[in-house]
Design goal:
The chain is an alpha/beta fold and 806 residues long. The chain is built from 28 helices and 22 strands.
Length: 806
């Protein structure tokens, strides 16, 4: 807290008129309740209107309603930059606009800055002032603009320009409430210089949780469930519905977890500060806007067709779409591939006016109301739009605007980003994601001026954003979250997306309490939890994607999967004299993909030439030419590949290559699986999947019959992916060795559906219980190349059993 008494007052000789009072308090909620009647509440976000039950305004709305809005000012700046020599490289950003406006308050350029920047600021100021009343331009003591009684709360920083304008518009009985946790000498000095004065100090009992409760959670789902448990307890403890706020740096990342947890506990969520694009209807419109900006490209339309708002297309429809490969609106319309929900787009007017595009989109179900609201905002920009790409780009910008929050149910748990909390109040605040890099977050702004110029501006008293100011803002947002409610709970997830997290420096030093959500009685007897208690905290599989290799690892040894893919433990990289196995695999796959793509277009092409060209591209891509003796090593690898493509088994008679190195994402037995399909051929007997292997033996599978590693997991997944791509049953598959001479087919597709289903069931059970024991096959084949022996603390004894290592 700053030393307010040390700040100069009227005796310092600074000329000022009496504008309003400054209340510095450690009980802001009590102070506001006492001072709010008869005053207009000014806060940074609309959340205050909900939590204080009054109609609040933002400072930005108050200060700039009598002046050209930011968008118009930005257009003036854009025109000015185009006219001014040597400044056309400056980006047209709102931050540059704010910096130039701040420069107008300085009679001389700050030392170390380019004088041309100051000249640009003066010219911008002259052009903007031509549209604004003279009384708003003048100092506070000479104002004649209408004033009103204001109560400003939620702001810990105010620029010189903002203080000047605020002082022009605030009535003499206006009040600025500053929490003692966040007040600074700079802000107090600026206010005193413009006529604000200290109120009589009143120290009430603190109405906020200065010492937060910090809980350690396993992952985001564990966070959400614990937070919802605390919210349910808070509601039961209050006679009237309490105001509960959940905040996170990126709330959208918690949407799935919070939705699941709220339904488990019977709570209602209400999301605030969402953009139009984050709403159900807006998300569909955003996809359509992307289609327009990308001129109806194949990829953008396919993304639109996968929207949840579109009924799921049948495999036959996707097969027709892939076969047509439409690119451009006319091709999509000619092929008649768009579903009924998008019927209005079948006759899309490619060359038209914005009004005609608006009418075409309005014919789509559920979009009319949203489009009407967006077009009101787009109206000033519509005359400048001459093509559908520009129309789509302007529409996407409109979708980034905040959407109305709607009516808030009295018992709803509110979810909002930290920026919405300053100036608000609640009974309980639950802050999620207090980890390094999440909160505080890394700076994400693109500065329009380099670091040296910004440092000079900052030293000269100009408010500019820097990494230092960003860090201060992140810390201030955390303090505002604490000030919002008498009870504040912060959560530190240990793992996010499978990666171990570092505790945020905002809560370093606080005692971490393990978060254990209370057990809930099942509402459905068919969904009753297992009688076996969890061994460890469960692992959330909702957002996790598995590869065929991952699933095979789990089937070989649960602990090995847990150490590698859940804990993310890896061996230190050692210098290599020869190719590492994964590098060799990528080298072979890139080369064979080059060959396959060429043979797909021209089956008669010379294969030796194709291998040479593909191998040269692959070794450059992987950087293997830097290895010692690579000149001699490449001869061996090149010979392996030449022998393979020359063999009859590489592309048997009657085989036609359909896909090569095709990525896929499929739902398989309830798991989200992703991977790459090495090759898919069309044969006289139907489609066949080929998976290249660098070894000379059939790859080890998961534990199957007799506990041996004979359960093939990979080929069944690849076959399922091929079926998803072709839309027809695929019953053939093979492993093809790159290095084995003679017969190269190592194994063919022989699925065991019952054991594969059981494998997935075992994975879900292990994740639910958090139990991943060391359970390799009896012959310990899974341990042959395992890097985690020092962790599992078990070794192979003389009798081929597992003995405890001493």
């Amino acid at each position: 807290m700053s030393n307010i008494n040390a700040i100069p007052d009227a005796a310092s000789g600074i000329r000022r008129s009496m504008t309003g009072q400054i209340h510095v308090t450690n009980a802001p909620a009590h102070t506001i309740q006492a001072l709010l009647p008869g005053r207009q509440l000014i806060t940074p976000s609309d959340l205050a209107s909900v939590t204080w039950n009054v109609q609040a305004r933002t400072l930005n709305d108050l200060l700039w309603t009598s002046q050209a809005d930011h968008t118009t000012a930005l257009q003036v700046l854009t025109n000015l930059l185009a006219e001014t020599p040597d400044t056309d490289t400056l980006p047209r950003t709102r931050e540059l606009l704010d910096i130039l406006r701040a420069l107008t308050l300085h009679p001389d350029p700050p030392k170390g800055t380019d004088p041309r920047l100051h000249t640009l600021a003066r010219e911008l100021d002259r052009r903007l002032h031509s549209t604004e009343p003279a009384e708003i331009q003048g100092p506070a003591q000479h104002r004649s603009a209408p004033t009103e009684s204001l109560l400003l709360y939620g702001y810990d920083t105010l620029s010189e320009l903002e203080v000047r304008r605020l002082s022009c518009l605030a009535g003499p009985d206006s009040v600025i409430v500053l929490p003692s946790l966040l007040v600074t000498d700079t802000l107090i000095t600026r206010l005193l210089q413009h006529g604000w004065h200290h109120a009589t100090a009143e120290q009430a009992a603190e109405d906020s949780a200065l010492e937060p409760q910090v809980m350690s959670a396993d992952d985001p789902l564990h966070e959400a469930r614990t937070a919802m448990t605390l919210a349910a307890e808070c509601q039961r403890a209050h006679e009237h519905p309490p105001r509960i706020l959940i905040t996170a740096r990126r709330p959208e990342n918690y949407r799935a977890a919070l939705t699941v947890a709220s339904k488990e506990r019977g709570l209602t969520l209400h999301w605030l500060n969402r953009t139009f694009a984050q709403t159900h209807t807006g998300a569909l419109l955003a996809l359509i806007a992307t289609v327009l900006t990308e001129d109806w490209s194949y990829e953008s339309v396919c993304s639109l067709l996968t929207s949840p708002a579109i009924h799921r297309l049948a495999p036959s429809a996707w097969a027709s779409i892939r076969q047509a490969g439409a690119n451009g609106q006319r091709q999509w319309a000619t092929a008649a591939l768009l579903p009924s929900e998008l019927a209005a787009l079948r006759t899309w007017p490619h060359q038209a006016t914005p009004q005609e595009w608006y009418e075409a989109l309005s014919r789509l179900p559920t979009l009319a109301d949203l489009l009407f609201e967006l077009h009101l905002w787009m109206a000033p920009r519509l005359p400048e739009i001459s093509d559908q790409r520009t129309y789509g780009a302007v529409l996407k910008r409109a979708l980034r605007r905040p959407a109305p929050s709607g009516t808030v149910p009295p018992d709803a748990v509110l979810v909002a980003p930290p920026e919405a909390l300053p100036g608000s109040r609640a009974d309980l605040v639950l802050a999620l994601g207090l980890t390094e890099g999440v909160w505080p977050s890394a700076p994400d702004f693109q500065p329009p001026l380099d670091a040296h110029v910004r440092a000079a501006l900052h030293a000269g008293g100009v408010d500019v954003r820097t990494a230092v100011t960003h860090a201060g803002q992140e810390r201030a947002l955390y303090r505002w979250a604490q000030l919002t409610a008498p009870r504040f709970v912060a959560f530190v997830p240990q793992i996010i997306s499978g990666r171990r997290q570092l505790t945020s420096d905002l809560v370093v030093g606080a005692a971490l309490i393990p978060a254990r959500p209370h057990e809930l009685a099942p509402t459905d007897p068919y969904q009753a939890p297992s009688s076996a208690p969890p061994v460890h905290p469960p692992i959330d599989l909702i957002d996790r994607r598995f590869s065929p290799t991952q699933l095979t690892r789990f089937g070989q040894c649960a602990f090995r999967w847990y150490a590698q893919y859940s804990l993310g433990l890896t061996q230190p990289q050692e210098p290599q004299r020869t190719l590492a196995p994964d590098t060799r695999g990528r080298l072979y796959h890139v080369t064979l993909d080059h060959v396959a793509q060429a043979l797909k277009e021209n089956p008669a092409a010379d294969r030796h030439t194709l291998v040479e060209a593909g191998f040269a591209a692959a070794e450059t891509q992987e950087g293997v030419d830097r290895l010692l003796n690579w000149t001699w090593q490449r001869i061996e690898h090149l010979r392996y590949l030449q022998d393979l493509v020359s063999s009859d088994e590489f592309l048997p008679t009657g085989h036609q290559i359909i896909h090569s190195e095709a990525e896929f994402i499929i739902d398989w037995n309830g798991l989200a699986l992703h991977g790459t399909l090495d090759r898919l051929d069309h044969t006289p007997a139907g489609y066949e999947v080929t998976d290249y292997k660098t070894g000379k033996e059939k790859p080890r599978g998961a534990k199957g019959e007799g506990g041996r590693l004979n359960l093939d997991v990979q080929l069944p997944i690849y076959v399922a992916a091929a079926e998803a791509q072709t839309g027809v049953p695929v019953t053939r598959g093979r492993y093809l060795s790159v290095t084995k001479p003679g017969r190269r087919t190592l194994s063919t597709f022989q699925p065991d559906p019952a054991r594969l289903t059981q494998l997935v069931h075992d994975l879900f059970t292990a994740a639910d219980r958090g139990h991943f024991p060391v359970n390799p096959d009896p012959a310990l084949d899974a341990c042959t190349h395992c890097a985690y022996a020092p962790l599992c603390r078990q070794v192979k004894g003389e009798d081929d059993h597992l003995d405890e290592a001493s």
